[in-house]
Amino acid sequence: MRIAISGTHGTGKTTLAEAICALVYDDPLDAWADLPVLELNGPLDARLETVVATLVPLPERRMAR
Fold first, then answer.
1. What is this structure's pTM?
2. In a domain, 1, yes or no
3. Residues spanned by the domain of 21
4. Per-residue pLDDT tens digits for 5-45
5. Which ranges constitute the DSSP H helices of the chain?
6. Rounded CA separation 20/3 (Å)
7. What is the predicted pLDDT for the residue at 58?
8. Is 37 a domain residue?
């Protein structure tokens, strides 16, 4: 799932983002315990490398180094 929040200044984006992150990280129903959570911040041009790196399972990443 991907969640993107946009809007003008003062519309509550930060409050909404914080509430969504709290729900995701707290996982009250244990609905996504086996799924990695990737939070992307910062410039868009740096995000692709981060996303691609998460697509490779951790054991394979260790072997590739």
1. 0.52
2. no
3. 13-64
4. 778 888 888 888 889 888 888 888 888 888 877 777 767 77
5. 13-26, 47-55, 58-64
6. 9
7. 60
8. yes
